[in-house]
Amino acid sequence: MSKKELTCPNCGAKISLDEAEYAAIAEQVRTEEYERDVERRVNEMSENIRLTEQNKAALDLDKMKSVVEELKLQLSKADSEKVIAVTNAETEKQRKIDELQHKIETAEMNTQLAVAEKEKQDTVKINELEKQMSEIESRYKLELRDKDNEIEQLKTKRRQLSVKMIGENLEEHCKKTFEMHRAEFPNAVFKKDNEIVEGTKGDFVFRESDAHGNEFVSILFDMKDEAEDSTQKQKNEHFFKKLDKDRRNKNCQYAVLVSELEADDELYNQGITDVSLMSGYDKMFVVRPQFFMTFIRIVRGEAVKTLKLMQQLDEIKQSNISLENFEDKLKGVANNIVTYATNENNKIQDTRNFIDKAISALEKAKATLDQADKNLKKLESVTDQMTVKKLTAGNPIVREMIEAQNYEI
Predict the structure, then answer these.
(1) Cα 273 to chain centroid, rounded
(2) Percent of the chain scored above 90 by pLDDT?
């Protein structure tokens, strides 16, 4: 068997091997190289695969980047178009908003102008009203101040009168008070009631008549007072029945109790108290002495107003009577004219019938017609001469009414 030598690559030693050993080692070497070669090839293939995959991934990535870029361009383009569309829409929207805003501002301006003008007018009216109210307020303040002063004076006077009237007598006090103001009532009569009727009488009677002697106001007065230290206090209502009886007996419009009784009663301390409802007697009043003249002035003033209204009413009635007489006269004249014309027309008709029936009497009929014609002319003459002046003769009121309407008389 032949031998083969192998040299160690590390130490350089030589080893003799038979063919079997050599073959085994060679086989082992070949197997290791083959495995190394396979491993190398596997590694190369893995590297190639990796590189291929990287290249493919790179290509796919580039392709994807290209697609992304294209999509970005499309998206950018779409965004641009969207921005343009939005911008246009916003521009149109803003234009409409501006247009509406302008209209609103114009309307607001017109409204403000109208409101300003109305406020100006209202301000003028308010200023006028405030001025009037101020004037009225000032006037009433003055009047109120005067009234307050008057009331205060009356209160002072009342405190003084409570003692004074007892010593002086309330009747005498009222008489003197009226005489002090006599000039206000030149046509009035204020006198002591001395006429006893059915066993009673009042204290004073006030009467006043107009220029024609027609009485238009009358008041029966009864005066009652008592000392403050009196133990038997009387009440005003105790005298109402007698007061009403005296008023009726003396044919007076009003019954007035001038009283110092019930000095602490708030109702009577108002000054003038209408007791008609509470007493059941018509036109009855309780008056404190300090309001004695005030009551007369009030009642007399209202009576004067009523008198003037009655006089105006009488004048209107008289005017209506004169106008009715004037209308009756016109109707009478018109009726006479109609009657006269009817009679003449009948005569003419009779004459015409006569002509139809009797031709032989033509001359006589002609004379009748001539006479009828003269009568009609006379009637026309009478009508022409009939004037409003003649018709209103004896009616001066109707004549004045016609002249007031600018009719020629």
Answers:
(1) 36
(2) 21
